[in-house]
Amino acid sequence: MGSIVQVTDLVKRFGDFTAVDGVSFSIEEGEVFGLLGPNGAGKTTTISTISCLLSPDGGDVVVSGHSVHGATMAVKRELGVVPQEIALYPTLSAGENLAFWGRMYGLSGAALKSAVNEALVLAGLEDRSKERVEKYSGGMKRRINIAAGVLHHPKVLLMDEPTVGIDPQSRNHILQTVKDLNASGMTVLYTSHYMEEVEFLCDRIAIMDHGKIIAMGTLNELREVVGGMDVVDVKVESVSDSVLECVRAIPGVKQVDRTDSALQVLTPGSGAVLGKLVATLESEGSHVTSITVTEPNLESVFLHLTGKSLRD
Amino acid sequence: MRTLFTIAGKDARILVRDRTALLVMLAMPLALIFILGSALGSIGQGDSLDIDVAIVNQDAGDTGQRFVDGLTGSKEIDALFNIEVSDDADAVRTAVEKGDLTAALIIPSDLTEKITAGEPVGLEVLQDPGSKIAGGIWAGVVRAGVSSASAQIIAVQTLQEELAAAGAGAQPSAPQGAAPEMPPMTFDAVAVREIEAQVDKRISMISYYSAGMTGMFLLFGSMFGAFSFVKERREQTLARMLSTPASKLAIVGGKAIGVLMIGAGQFAVLLIGTQMLFGVDWGQNIGATILVGAAEAIAAAGLAMTLAALGKSERAIGGIAPAAIMLFAATGGSMVPTEQLPKFLLPVQVVSPVYWTVNGFLDVMRGASVADVLPGAGAVLAIGAVLFAFGVWRLRFE
Ligand SMILES: Nc1ncnc2c1ncn2[C@@H]1O[C@H](COP(=O)(O)OP(=O)(O)OP(=O)(O)O)[C@@H](O)[C@H]1O
Ligand SMILES: [Mg+2]
User: What is the domain partition of chain A in residue ranges?
Assistant: First the structure.
């Protein structure tokens, strides 16, 4: 077991704007590696440099020993790519689309035919394979979009937000598919801004923001970043500076972050502080409209590290 | 190589499912050929068509003159024809050969003599095969004249109580009213003799526009090829192709071959369609016709790349492409024969693939060989190569 993808000090600029700013990580053979980050973090840009669509302005990407500097064809042959956008031909059927992408990866004849059938089964669309893709639902398109990236059995699968904008049923199907593919030996780089997906799927996770990796490790390692603390989200009508001071003074409160009309409180035990917290806010004139308690997760990790929420 | 044809085949398949594309590439040219070809080239209703014909009467007797008077005296005939009465049979034959005259009638010197002797007689009707319709009308008119003349003659002969005529019954015989026991007097002739007009073989309007519109619309494949490229770029299938082990050149080449394949299919449909629907005669040398058409389909593939490089969106390309093609077509002879266009357009013409293509088609219709159209096809290929190179140079992939 060694690392099959090695990203080192990767830099990618668009004009003056640095979209990927010195990113390094490595993916071990057989793992699902998660790249989590909000919109514009640089996830797609990172994936595009790995798949040789963009050439790096600095650093290197090595896949199975082949560098994207020079050996792009060798790199591409190792990869399957599931793009963020649904990149299919709407007026071709699912079967025709899959056959086309299979041929593009060099499959032909009986091998192509069985790969297409297998991919249709994977997408759960074997009985609708003759229908044009444009007639499919969003979720079905997503599934074919994924199937088209894996039918040639790549060593490494790059998935860029494969569940964006779909119903829960299709989403579960897709997450299960990723698990199955990984179980069959495929190494997966999974990109998302849904922390639940990344928590469910990934062995290791890198959290990305503004072109940089701000934390990396297993889920448990990342939870340690917030000290395994509970997150208490309090929605209030208004937050004044004095309120903030009073809340910080409550025993058991470790950290308080504020947005316009909300407070986020980190505490080792929420049970001990909730009553005091509500009382303090009410007495200071900040009327509480709702309150939620969350066990530590990637959302709280992200919040802790960046002071903002993963989702806008 | 396999990748090229994978991409080309995919593009062709997508295009065949695109109704708009089929409409523009097949239905429009056929409709325009029909409209232009019939509005200007076929027979109007009673208006003077001024088909140029000549009559040469060499008859020593007076039957010939009566025949001529019959033809020239008729209002209906006068509306259709511009009849010139001439003495010089050879000059008239030459004029038909040259295409200066559409048709002619030559009456032999022994007409009266033979009729009197009861022998079959022959009239010589000449027509330019390039103007079959007009020539056919002339032959019909002469036949009708013969028919009525023979009825008159029979009447005269019945009075004279004489004569039997031999000869296989040619044209119309005596009217029903004539004495049934009398064998009808027949002209053996009005054997229409087609003269192979060599110098300026006239091409019918429908044939002309078949060449013109095919030369123009074969270029439209380029527009759809460029659409396809821009669409693939926008919808990310281009990026997806680039993430497969296919080189940029293979992708561009595949898309170019796709345009070429589409053009080949379109050309086949237009060639067979005009032949079957309008009876267009594309000439004797199908190999030469195919060479001319294939060269332009290749040029269309090159033009597709230039269009894809110049136009950033389908809208932009949808504006540039028809304008460019119209310009090529108008200067290239798709609408008006190039001889009738002013000379200062020549610099535009030589860079217009339509110009070489339309003239190539017309030349083959007039009897040109592969060798004759080779230089024109070469010019089209050269234009296509320049357009392809420019397009590939300026093409943006993301
Ligand atoms: N081709 C480009 N030209 C200019 N800027 C770009 C280009 N592609 C991406 N960017 C910018 O780079 C930054 C990172 O974009 P990227 O698409 O990698 O983010 P992402 O993490 O994939 O976001 P999302 O979750 O929205 O997909 C963004 O600010 C984006 O606007
Ligand atoms: Mg993205």
Answer: 3-223, 228-295
Q: Hey, are the CB atoms on B243 and A85 less than 8 Å from each other?
A: no
DSSP for residue B134: H
Pocket test for ligand 1, best of A36, A39, A213 (most atoms within 8 A of CB): A39
CA distance A151 to A80: 8
- What pLDDT was estimated at residue B165? 39
B283-310 residue pLDDT tens: 999 999 999 999 999 999 999 999 999 9
Neighbours of B133 (CB within 10 A): 15
Between CA B27 and CA B293 the distance in angstroms is 18
First vs last C-alpha separation in chain B: 24
Q: Is the CB of B82 inside 8 Å of chain A's CB atoms?
A: no
Distance between CA A195 and CA B227 in Å, rounded? 39
Asked if A64 and A4 touch (Cβ cutoff 8 Å), the reply is: yes
Q: What percent of chain A has pLDDT over 70?
A: 98
Structure tokens at B318: 């949808």
Given the candidates 3.40.350.10, 3.30.830.10, 3.40.630.180, 3.40.50.300, the CATH classification of the domain at A3-223 is 3.40.50.300
ipTM, two decimals: 0.82
- Is CATH 3.30.70.100 what the domain over A228-295 is classified as, yes or no? yes
d(CA A212, CA A11): 10
